[in-house]
Amino acid sequence: MTLVPASISGPQDRRRAKALRRLGTGKLPTVRAMALAWRNGLGAVLAALIGFGLIKGRTDVGDLASPYAAAVGALLVLSILAGGTAAALLLRAAHGSPHGLPMSDLVDSPDPEADAERLETEASLDALRRGRWMAAACAVLLISAVGLTWYGPGKDATRIVVLTPQGERCGSVQRLEQGVLTLKTNSGEVAVRMAEAIGIRTADSCGPAKP
Questions:
Q1: Hey, how many other C-beta atoms are within 10 angstroms of the C-beta on 121?
Q2: Which of 114-123, 152-161, 197-206 has the lowest mean pLDDT?
Q3: Nearest-CA neighbor of 44 among 127, 139, 129, 113?
Q4: Nearest-angstrom CA–CA distance, 17 and 34
Q5: Are strands 159-164 and 199-203 parallel, antiparallel or unpaired?
Q6: Per the confidence metrics, is the pTM higher than 0.70?
Q7: Which of 93, 141, 146, 148 has a C-alpha 20 to 30 A away from that of 122?
Q8: In the 3-class helix/strand/coil scheme, how is 96-165 assigned residue by residue?
């Protein structure tokens, strides 16, 4: 076994070591600023989506057919969970951990201050990355829930059959004004005078009109 004397570091090696250490420090303020921007952007996007969903399209999930109403509920719950997780991660990236760094990670460090900043930068950057993914997932889930609420199939309206001297009139109730009942039938809207009605019953579906 041959022992070889260790090489002595020169000025160039010391400059290189300082440059490498500088690369790992000084980035924390940039990461913090990025996290704040994403946090504010997430809040603005969610507020816009919720506001847009409330002023346009169907707003009552109860009007949806049975499986679609449950799907909207599940999407909303998942979007809330994703949004809460994204907010927590972005707050962690923007303001740091409330617990701080464990001192055991810095005891043997030759430069504890620089290493502490480097570790915090890495942790904040990781939280920022995960927070962005969760924010995107929250937006996708919320958009899906709003879209399904708007365009999902609605419940079938209750159909009634009105017996008149002219025959049966079957359809869903549209309105009742001044004793005139308007039904939506397969052939369009039909007005029926309630004073002429002989009887009324409900029906699951409407077949061909009976004279």
A1: 19
A2: 152-161
A3: 139
A4: 28
A5: antiparallel
A6: no
A7: 141
A8: CCCCCCCHHHCCCCCCHHHHHHHHHHHHHHHHHHHHHHHHHHHHHHHHHHHHHHHHCCECCCCEEEEEEC
Structure tokens at 55: 């002023």
DSSP string, 3-50: --PPPPP-HHHHHHHHHHHHHTSS-HHHHHHHHHHHHHHHHHHHHHHH
DSSP 173: E
What is the rounded distance in angstroms from the CA atom of residue 55 to the CA atom of residue 81?
24
Question: Where along the chain do its domains lie?
Answer: 17-151, 159-203
Architecture of domain 159-203 in this structure: Roll (2.30)
Q: How many CA atoms lie within 13 A of 151 on its CB side?
A: 6
User: What's the rounded Cα separation, in Å, for the pair 93 and 86?
Assistant: 10
Q: Write the pLDDT tens digit of every residue in 47-104.
A: 766 665 554 555 566 667 778 888 888 888 898 899 889 888 888 888 877 666 665 6
